[in-house]
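Researcher: Structure prediction, please.
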Amino acid sequence: VIYKELEQMAQPSDLDSENAVLATLMHYPEYYSQYSDMLNKDLFYNDKEKSIFMAVDGVLSAGHLANIPALADYAVSHKLPYKLSSTDFANIFQCGSPNTFKQDLERITSLSNRRRAWHFVMIAANSIQDRTKPLVETLNALTAVLGDIQSDSENEHISSFNDALSELSEIVEGNLKGKRISVATGFKLFDNY
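Model: Predicted structure follows.
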C-alpha cells in the first residue's frame, strides 16, 4: 500500500533535457552511434518521450535519417507505449543542440538512475513489511541493486572514446611543437611535475 502511494509521487525528470537529447539525435545521427552504449528508453520519464526515443532508435538503427516523415511512419507501423503523430516529432525537432548534448545526456542518465534507486528502495520497503521474507535477504538484494546503480552513476561522466582520443591527440601534437601541455590527474605529486 505504501509503495503504491509513494510510487505515484513525481519522480525526478527534466523534460527539457530529454527533448534536447531527442532532437539532437534527430539532427545529428553521429551522436546516436557515438553514445549508443549510454542510450536507452529508460532514460526518459514519460511514455511519450520513451516512444519518441524508440522511434528514433528504430529509424537510426535501420540506417535511415531520423526525419519527421520517417519517424511518423515508424510510429504508425510499430507498437509503442504512446500513440505518436508527426506533430509530436515536430514539436521537439527544434529543441536540440550539439553543444549541450553530452551535458543533457549526463543529466537524464543521472535522473534515470535516481528513479531506478527510488523504485528499488520502495520495493524493499514493501518487502520489509512482509514478515515471511527474511529481512537480511531483502537488505542484501537492495544493497546489490543499489551497488549496480552506483556503478552506472560512476560511469556517467566518462568521455566518449572519440572525445578522449581527440584531447590526447591535441596534447601530443602540442608537445611535438614544443608546447608543454599535460593532463591534470588530480594528484598533486603528478600534476606538479
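Model: The CA atoms of residues 26 and 66 lie 5 Å apart.
Researcher: Thanks, that helps.
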